[in-house]
Amino acid sequence: MGKLDRSLYGVHSSVAQSRVIPSELGKRWLGDWTGRGAWIGPFARTNRAGAWQYQWHAVSGPQKETDMNDTSYPVTDRSRVRLFGGRGSNDKQAIHEIIDAALYGVVSYQIEDQPFATPTMVWRHGDYVYWHGSAGSRMLKHVSQGVNVCVNFTLLDGYVLSRLASAHTLNYRSVMIFGRPEAVAEPAARREQLEYFLTRYFPGRWDEVRQPTEAELHSIIMVRMRIEEGSAKRRAGPPADGLAIFGGEALYEQQCWAGEIPLATVALPGRPAKRLHESVATPDYVTGFARRAGYRTPAEVNAHDGRYPVTVSETEMVGRDIKRFRLAVAAGPALPTIAAGGHVRIGTVLDDRTREARQYTVVDVAPDGNWCDIAVLREAAGRGGSRYLHDEVEVGRMLEIEVPENEFPLDPATRHAILIAGGIGVTPIVAMARALRRAGTSFEVHYSARGMDDAAFVDTLREICGDALHLYDTAADHGARMRLPELLAGRPAGTHSYTCGPAALIDAVVDAAAAVGFPAACVHHELFKAPAPLSSDKPVTVSFVRSRRELRVEPGTSILDAALSIGIPVPHSCKRGECGLCATKVLGGSKVSYRDRFLTDAQRSNEALACVCVCWAEGESLAVDL
């Protein structure tokens, strides 16, 4: 399924304004078409090609205020990732992975009226971070008094080159943590932390070097900071070309290269210092540093660029307008591990004959990585990518694919899975059912389609699931409907639900889970369509107050698209009500019909915000601050 991915120029910003408008050049919030989807974590380097891959276990919509627990840090206004909330995480493992990989952090603090940001070597031990330096350090003297401090860690993953000069940006992973440092006063505690820091990446080295004396330990300042709050964020994917804010589809006519230049941290071979004793050989902690730290070696960088040439070896219609493609590796290494819920990115050609990468769920993959299956729904009213694959790509055709991060993984803590699918959303559910069966984990599948001719992989699901498959034909007489509250109520601990389908299905699952007390952290979903207008929607007259414009908007056209059509710039991203980028203050008019999954109840009432990509008015008028 092709997915819309949105991004930020620059890096992590937790304390954001409740609404954002385009600002000076180079400081815009941007969005982009890509196959890489939302932020995911915690991190696990599993790609055989050396690329980072991630898993995300408990993110569903925006971060809400929480307390610290064993798996996550608290979230308040200062640490919440408000915009692109789905790209943020307060998961401890996700945050720890970035801190540990960054090696240094930037400590931000204020002395009187002057702010400072000091880069320094930082290491983590549990829920604390430590740093040290000379007793004459102004920064250390100040922060050791227990003042409020913010520490940022950033990993750069690539340059992003747009067809538009002002839309060039970076891909990154970043963390912001907050706390109040305190001095590590006891020499023994300082010594213990120095040993921990040194042996983390260089085991055995502490016993080889000269130990610090008491005088040396007294000559430094060491501080530690408990992570009171923290959040992680990442941007990934190609440029934002094609959005209306940048001129829309016309930008594709700019005949210049656009895309990503990936960056990677590479650990080169160790270089010995002068005058080493002749008996000293290069130790294992030097030769094995890259592996231990999670970095790449020159050999790994040169071995593979993450693109895989494949041949279409089979095609099969698996439902009305749904075609399965088997993509067999044509040359080079096998595909990396593609866990259930994963995707591949594949190049398509649109109706205007421009190329565009689309992302499709992997339905099945060979154990040895020599082939994978995807399924594509032919969309007659689309932009042509799916029609290109259906009509022009035949058996024997050579293609090139990439394997991005898994956006919709199974949580390893799942003891029983409730798999829910609607329409073409069945594709990741098939893969999940197959993986759960192989792992011996119990599961059940609930699949809804408008007629069994429109359902895909029904025979495959019957073979995998047996009696655990429940089909709902909504087109039949007295069409069957899922009774979601009954489906989710009274489940034992360790039960997780996974839903893929249209917004209405996902909303129904989320609402039912909340109604019966099913844990929100155990509700996972992936959306493939924007919410459709309601049959009760009426035309609305929208006043764009700051622009002094007024427009009558018909159902089926969003307020966002209406604003863009008359030249009113509105930062936006997903157009599905998930990212919050288009959240705008409502100044008057009728009551708002909220249809997003981003804003909190407080933001809707106290701040009177609305995501104009999906909201509507219950009456005839609406006034917004645009």
From TrEMBL:
GO terms for molecular function: 2 iron, 2 sulfur cluster binding; metal ion binding; oxidoreductase activity. Its cofactor is FMN. It holds the Pfam family Pyridox_ox_2. Residues 540-626 form the 2Fe-2S ferredoxin-type domain. Keywords: 2Fe-2S, Flavoprotein, FMN, Iron, Iron-sulfur, Metal-binding, Oxidoreductase. The keyword Cell division does not apply. This is 2Fe-2S iron-sulfur cluster binding domain-containing protein. It comes from Cupriavidus pauculus.
